[in-house]
């Protein structure tokens, strides 16, 4: 059943509001609690700018097929059904967790907005909220991510790292049922679902670098839908977009995907608001067993006078880092998981 959000009065400042803001924007989303939260968040933000919205909950293949993800099933598992809703005119807006969105360019869609990012950190969740070092030898730790598995094994090679699938609630049920001694969750999902009392310990970024795009939303529209594109532009955060463009460029250049043991984190650093600042990018590629690690760091100066110039710089930064990692043997490490 579709959900409607009533619009707030239109703002009278310099916010970008298309002329025909009476049009309903239909927002396609997966039905998981986290995905629904994300869609409602986007609907609420659009309402701030005077746009009326309607949620269109859908079931993706990734929600029904809970087998471990392998090299034949990794791309678009959670996103294709949502994108198809745009093409079939079931919806006007698709809300994704950006880390799930394939990096291959599809001219039929436009990434209209990347809102401000939530925390990128991962957390170790257990019944007693202990840290990784306190787990007993041979403890079973659940994660559906090769990136997390590799970084966990590099810290604790004695642990038994096992695949786990399902939404946050499903994974927590498996933990409570004793299938695992601990599981790893993205802290962003925990925060968004307001599970503040969940017993957990956050990994530092030195311990666990995030997946490209982690903690960020990617909001797509049909590339020929100027109204939806202009409406969503109000939600775009340039600094977040630059960071994830650099991260996802590395992933694309290295022909990664959901399975690749690639971690990346981009940030914009500046001494003051009137300074151009720098885009900084850190990337790690590991072997699945955590014994081999390649790491690169790079930065570039931003202009901020022209967003397109800065996006181009973010792409170039990602390509530069990918080239260095490829020269160091990253392709071989990535190929080992396929």
UniProtKB/TrEMBL annotation:
Domain Porphobilinogen deaminase N-terminal: residue ranges: 25-227
Keyword Transferase in annotation: yes
What EC number(s) has UniProt assigned to this enzyme?
2.5.1.61
Name one matching Pfam family: Porphobil_deam
**Family matches, as SUPFAM superfamilies:** Periplasmic binding protein-like II, Porphobilinogen deaminase (hydroxymethylbilane synthase), C-terminal domain
Where does the record place Polar residues bias? 1-19
Recorded GO CC terms: cytoplasm
Q: Which residues carry this modification: S-(dipyrrolylmethanemethyl)cysteine?
A: 258
Pathways involved: Porphyrin-containing compound metabolism; protoporphyrin-IX biosynthesis; coproporphyrinogen-III from 5-aminolevulinate: step 2/4
Q: Which UniProt keywords apply?
A: Porphyrin biosynthesis, Transferase
State whether keyword Transferase applies: yes
Question: PANTHER family given for it?
Answer: PORPHOBILINOGEN DEAMINASE
**Which family is this protein grouped under?**
Belongs to the HMBS family.
- List other remarks: The porphobilinogen subunits are added to the dipyrromethane group.
Recorded protein name is Porphobilinogen deaminase
Please report the organism this UniProt entry assigns to the protein.
Aporhodopirellula rubra
């Amino acid at each position: 059943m579709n959900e409607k959000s009533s619009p707030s009065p239109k703002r009278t400042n310099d916010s970008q509001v298309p002329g025909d803001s009476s049009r309903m924007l239909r927002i396609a989303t997966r039905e998981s609690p986290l995905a629904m939260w994300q869609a409602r968040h986007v609907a609420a933000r659009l309402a701030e700018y005077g746009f009326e919205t309607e949620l269109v909950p859908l079931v993706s293949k990734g929600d029904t097929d809970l087998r471990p993800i392998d090299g034949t099933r990794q791309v678009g598992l959670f996103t294709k059904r949502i994108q198809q809703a745009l093409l079939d005119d079931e919806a006007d807006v698709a809300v994704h967790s950006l880390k799930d969105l394939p990096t291959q360019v599809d001219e039929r869609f436009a990434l209209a907005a990347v809102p401000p990012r939530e925390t990128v950190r991962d957390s170790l969740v257990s019944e007693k909220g202990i840290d990784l070092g306190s787990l007993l030898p041979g403890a079973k730790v659940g994660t559906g991510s090769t990136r997390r598995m590799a970084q966990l094994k590099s810290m604790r090679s004695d642990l038994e790292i096992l695949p786990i699938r399902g939404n946050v609630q499903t994974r927590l049920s498996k933990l409570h049922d004793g299938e695992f001694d601990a599981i790893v969750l993205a802290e962003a999902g925990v925060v968004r679902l307001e599970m503040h009392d969940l017993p957990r310990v956050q990994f530092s970024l030195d311990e666990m670098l995030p997946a490209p795009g982690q903690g960020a939303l990617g909001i797509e529209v049909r590339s020929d839908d100027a109204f939806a594109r202009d409406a969503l532009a109000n939600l775009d955060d340039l600094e977040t977009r630059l960071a994830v463009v650099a991260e996802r460029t590395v992933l694309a250049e290295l022909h990664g995907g959901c399975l690749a043991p690639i971690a990346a984190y981009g940030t914009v650093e500046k001494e003051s608001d009137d300074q151009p600042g720098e885009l900084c990018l850190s990337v790690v590629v590991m072997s699945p067993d955590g014994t081999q690690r390649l790491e690169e760091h790079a930065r570039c100066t931003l202009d901020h006078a022209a967003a397109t110039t800065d996006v181009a710089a973010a792409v170039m930064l990602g390509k530069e880092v990918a080239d260095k990692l490829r020269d160091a043997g990253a392709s071989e490490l990535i190929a080992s998981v396929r």
